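[Q] Does anyone have a clean structure-token version of this?
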Amino acid sequence: MENNIINLVDVIAQKKEVQTFQNEHVAPLKIEDEKISQRRIYSFIVDFTSILLINTCIQTAYAVSINEFLYSVNLQARMDLFSQSLPFQVGVFLLTYCAYFFYSLYVMDGQTFGKKVFKLHAVKDSYIFNESESETLSLTDSFRRTMGYLGCYLSFGSFFVFSMMSEDKRGLPDYFSSSRTVSEEWLVSNKFYRSIDPEQVQIDVDSLSMAQNSVA
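[A] Here you go.
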């Protein structure tokens, strides 16, 4: 069999058994067998470190701008302008925090930098149970998941602990966006299983006609 097409003449002539693909020999990894809690923790540490680095760059650029454009103002006044802008600094950090997760999840197909390093993906929860559903997060899903991450941060990390202790290992971002985090191994296995599941074998009927003509 080549490309799922059976040459029936060859099968009959050689008295071979028709071999078809038995997809029961290939089973996807079970979602309940996923052991990724530790990888999720490391992933978030990488993400949070990345956010801190980006925020530091923004704050540094702000300080340099004050120094460059307000050079006529005395040094103490410039230092006070930067040190007393706490609401601005907090606002910039929260904006950076949200923009990082939203951009990463939507543009990078459910992966942040940390998830990419530790081979994790955020997918729609409906994808787990519905074969016709796409795993890719929509714009709305990405926004809602980002709000979940923001809620976890504003709770001083308590909701992150909740995700480790929940029965299905899902946290606030997962529930907010009806999504979940899976390993790349599970996703690849599941996609492969779904790709071979609907395959059909075709019989090359034309080969019979050619064989009959050659005999005649």
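[Q] Thanks! Anything notable?
[A] Residues 20-26 have pLDDT under 50 and may be disordered.
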